Amino acid sequence: MKTNPPGYLELAYVRAFAATRIARLSDARKHHDLGASAIELAIITAILVGLAVAVLVIINTIVTNRANEINSNNGKIP
After folding, report:
1. Is 78 a member of any domain?
2. 1 with 21, same domain?
3. According to the model, what pLDDT value does residue 59 have?
4. Global pTM?
């Protein structure tokens, strides 16, 4: 029985993935489709960054409010 060396399946997956991407790029070049322009990518990136900042602000507000609700006696026994 033949056994494959370690990493064989991963390498096969990477080869298949690369072949698919190359085929799609080749097909797109034949049809003169270059995909999204730099402006479109910049706008999408700006939207994603804005959403990330909004999520961070919400999380920070929630954590700060919860932290302020904690009563601390600085380790003194009441």
Report:
1. no
2. yes
3. 93
4. 0.47
